[in-house]
Amino acid sequence: MAFSDLSQELIDEIIDHASDTRTDLLACSLSWRCFRPRCQFHLFKTIWIQVPTEDRFLILGSEVFEKCLILKTYVRCLQLFMDHESEWNLLYENDNCLQLMKRFCPIPDLRLELVYRGGPGVWKPIDWTSFAKVFWQPFIAPGVTTIILDTDGTTFPFELIFQCSKLRSLSTSRVSLSPRGISRPLGFPVHHLYLTSLRMTGSRDEMTTALLNFRDRYHDNNKLLVLNKLKKFDHRLDFVDDFYAVDEIIVNSTESLELLRCRIDPGYQGSDANPKMLKAIKDSKLVSVARLPAFKHLEFEFTGMSSDHTQNPFLPAAALIHSFSSISNLSRIAIKISLPLSEESRPWMWLSRNLEPLDMAIFDLGQTVRRQVKLEICVEVDEGSVMRKKSDDGHRIKDDEWESDCIINLEREKYFQCNFPFTSSSKFVSRRYGWKYNKY
Fold first, then answer.
1. Is 239 helix (H, G, I), strand (E, B) or coil?
2. pLDDT (tens digit, 9 = 90+) per residue, 161-196?
3. DSSP E strands: which ranges in 225-350?
4. Which among 55, 153, 256, 377 has most CB atoms closer than 10 A?
5. How far is CA 378 from the centre of its chain?
6. How many helices (DSSP H) and strands (DSSP E) are in the chain?
7. Which residue would you say has higher pLDDT here, 168 or 378?
8. Cα distance between residue 317 and residue 340, in whole Å
9. How confident is the model at residue 316 (pLDDT cuts 50, 70, 90)?
10. Side-chain half-sphere CA neighbours of 310 within 13 A
């Protein structure tokens, strides 16, 4: 049961007890209803405050404002959470909220997170004019460290993020970034921008293209989205189409990139997926760039998989792994495979046939770097209850339903330590494999 599902009386009792008791907690997350003036907030190192924009917050006004000021000395992260377009205007019209922001934003090292997140059936385009009025005030924009956009059919005016000199993390889902739109809103200058985390999900390659093309508009390398400090790059677009742009982002962050996570959807391009991907990887700059000194984690997610595919959908991932063969610090490769199931399908036999190129690529990589590389493979076939089980011999699990062996290449068994936790439901089985490459 979630904490919010408890009765209000029980919630008040728990909060009152925590307020009067010393605690070893290092951080806490608070909603407005949880504020107590006598809480020992000085015992916490970090406090997150989620600012709602419901009508009750706007009505409470001064009461909420006074409660929040109690935490001013201790708060380190302020998250503004919006879920409807109209709330931007309501928030802007509420003087208490703007006054609250004016009090909090000067706090040193404050993390200010802007979150726009909708729900099923309520996706609406954002009114960016109202958005700019609310958050691109002179006392707000300089403090923004994180922007999270989760909406649909929205074109984000790319220039807005350049008003945030402290922005380090940009996460978008189902959002397009447009190099057009509001140009330098409210007349603020464009700041240097050093992203350390970039997550992109959604509509084809528009956002990736905008990310790279924006640099060409100003022709001033001192006022660009700087990627040379990017540490985490989570790319969840249609990877075949966008690989050329992804290639540019990786090349521009060679000194700092630590993690690359990408989704490959073989079904999106149909029978042409493999040739397009293989050509993109062959023509990429990854092979010719200097070794990525900080790169440690490479993650793949395969969606749209089907045992009806005539081509091997894992060939592009194997080719990409070969491209990273010169990286000396690569220590972990994680692969997630989602398979649709029907009563006629035999997924384990299909995986056994098609995973060989991936297996060979990992094996060759291990021989090249001559050190420990961890390989994690997660195969999800259905949503079942989680349970753990090991095979009798530690290498092979007999699948009674499909009568096929698991996807371990036994010729490599001396190089791998295998365990077989898996999830299961009443009809189908979903297995999670963890492989670990051993040092010679």
1. helix
2. 666 777 777 776 655 444 333 333 334 444 556 777
3. 225-226, 232-236, 259-264, 297-302, 332-338
4. 377
5. 18
6. 12, 18
7. 168
8. 20
9. confident
10. 3
DSSP structure class, residue 290: P
pLDDT digit string, tens, across residues 86-99: 455 555 555 656 66
Distance CA 343, CA 237 (A): 30
DSSP 291: P
**Which residue, among 305, 298, 297, has the nearest Cα to 320 in the 3D structure?**
298
| Alpha-carbon gap, residue 116 to 82, rounded angstroms | 5
Neighbours of 302 (CB within 10 A): 21
Output the six-digit token pair for 226.
């700087």
Which tokens belong to 356?
Answer: 């060989």
Q: How far apart are CA 62 and CA 41, in angstroms?
A: 21
Place of tokens 């993690």: 259
Q: Which residue is associated with the tokens 């010393």?
A: 22
Tokens (6 digits) for 255:
């000194």
Query: What CA–CA distance (Å, rounded) separates 398 from 406?
Result: 7
Residues near 402 by Cβ (< 8 Å), separated by ≥ 6?
346, 347, 348, 349
Cα(358)–Cα(259) distance, rounded to whole angstroms? 19
